[in-house]
Design brief:
The chain has one domain. 77% of the residues lie in helices and 0% in strands. The protein has 13 helices and no strands. Helix 3 packs antiparallel against helix 9 and helix 9 packs across helix 10. The longest helix is centred in the C-terminal third of the chain and has 47 residues.
């Protein structure tokens, strides 16, 4: 399999596994664990798993001095993104929260335009309007009641944190760092957020059952180690845009588990909201490629036309 094939597989696996967050998190909430404790175990177990994997593969843990500050910032951004998302599960259906989270590529486009003077195209404007329309439909829950404003705000903060993380990685020396090493240190530095919030683990919840340990291990492995490492590999092999496009599987997976496992209601209005949000992201992510394809086709046709005219003139 070539790099493109590997990248597509990695991106699909990363997106699908990240959408499993609610599947393993909600049962832990039902057993009485709070978000900070769940995320502490998630990150700590993820660091241990990646450390063992890197040791077995004899990968280097070494860092250059200049890599430490951006890694600290990256870890904090990923950690706060997780924290805001997990807190939002207390206020709204997990499937809806995961769908609203998927507006992060729109935020990336806005950040790139404002901070790096990337041109704002009509495609960007249309995608933002579609995303806002989709969120407005999702703003009412499956039972017809209005969703918590706190919950929506938390998801948007999670999305913003992740958007800043993506831009930061792409615009720093971390872009060339091996995926496992980047993920290991991002989780390690991100773990510090929960150590502090739990008063240096004095308020850490004990794991209440063997089933809870199973959910924590699965949470650390699938939507953490597999997803983050898969994303890093996919970005390297096929680039950030195709990886983000394939990320549309994230909310689809979350909604699937929310409906099938947790019996969350899926109405026609919610489906329409989900479609609008995903359409907004696909539009903004595919806009550049569609423009490039159109330009390439246009110049090809123009070149052929000029060639025919010159051939006709010479005969």
């Amino acid at each position: 399999m070539n790099d493109k094939g590997r990248g597509i597989v990695a991106a699909v696996v990363a997106a699908a596994t990240y959408g499993m967050n609610p599947l393993f998190t909600l049962p832990l909430y039902r057993e009485g664990m709070d978000a900070d404790s769940v995320l502490f175990y998630r990150y700590a177990l993820g660091v241990a798993m990646l450390g063992i994997l890197m040791k077995r593969r004899r990968e280097s843990f070494a860092l250059r001095g200049g890599e430490i500050p951006p890694l600290v910032v990256a870890g904090l951004l990923v950690s706060f993104s997780s924290l805001f998302l997990f807190l939002s599960y207390r206020h709204m259906d997990a499937g809806i929260a995961s769908t609203i989270l998927f507006v992060y590529p729109v935020m990336v486009a806005v950040i790139m335009a404002v901070c790096f003077r990337e041109k704002v195209t009509p495609v960007t404007v249309c995608s933002i309007l579609l995303a806002l329309a989709g969120i407005s439909l999702l703003y009412r829950g499956g039972d017809g009641g209005t969703l918590s404003l706190t919950g929506v705000a938390l998801v948007l903060l999670s999305s913003l944190s992740y958007a800043i993380y993506i831009v930061g990685v792409n615009k720093s020396m971390l872009r060339e760092m091996p995926g496992c090493r980047l993920t290991f240190y991002a989780l390690l530095f991100g773990l510090s957020v929960y150590v502090v919030r739990l008063r240096f683990c004095l308020e850490l919840d004990t794991v209440p059952s063997w089933a809870a340990w199973g959910n924590l291990l699965a949470l650390a492995f699938f939507p953490t180690v597999v997803s983050l490492a898969g994303t890093a590999l996919a970005v390297r092999w096929i680039g950030p845009t195709p990886t983000a496009i394939l990320g549309a599987l994230e909310p689809v997976t979350a909604v699937f588990f929310g409906v099938t496992v947790f019996k969350e209601q899926l109405t026609l209005r919610l489906v329409a909201g989900i479609v609008l949000v995903i359409a907004a992201v696909l539009l903004i992510l595919g806009g550049k490629q569609m423009t490039a394809w159109w330009n390439a086709w246009f110049f090809r046709m123009a070149s052929r036309l000029r060639h025919r005219r010159s051939s006709g003139g010479g005969s």
